[in-house]
Amino acid sequence: QIEAVFSLGVSLGRAFQIKDDILGIFGDERAIGKSTLTDLQESKKTILVWKAFRRGNGRQKQLIKRIMAKPDVKRSDLAQMRRVIEETGSLSYARNEVMRLCAVARQQISSCGMRPASRQELLSYVRSILSLE
Q1: Closest of 106, 101, 112, 107 to residue 3, by C-alpha
Q2: What is the pTM of this model?
Q3: Letter string b/e over residues 117-133, b meaning 16 or more CB atoms within 10 A of that residue's CB
Q4: pLDDT classification of 132: cutoffs 50, 70, 90
Q5: Is 57 helix (H, G, I), strand (E, B) or coil?
Q6: Distance of alpha carbon 23 from alpha carbon 45, whole angstroms
Q7: Are 14 and 101 in contact (CB under 8 A)?
Q8: For residue 106, what are the contacts with CB-CB under 8 A and spacing of at least 6?
Q9: Segment 14-44, tens digit of pLDDT
């Protein structure tokens, strides 16, 4: 049971982190409670940035490097980064990965021998992760 719950936690944790990465770049600042510039200002190499860099062409890779190296990221940089993340399919990849990890978590919850009330609570949490708004 401990191993099953641990694996479930890993799946949910990864899904939550990717969702947080998406919201950190594309979210509504009022809803998420922080600036969408924060991750770029901190040069966080999120799955979005990593995948965009891996899939990007030469111009896109240079743009990512330049923005990630800047000490003072502007709204125009964020707009450019968003465009590259979308053009390279990185945003779609990240959203699909959240959905995949949540499907894995649902399967893990179903096969885990926990009480029905606990199972329902975890399934509700998975649904909240899936809402990428």
Answers
A1: 112
A2: 0.86
A3: eeeeebeebbeebbeee
A4: low
A5: coil
A6: 14
A7: yes
A8: 123, 126
A9: 999 999 999 999 998 888 888 899 899 999 9
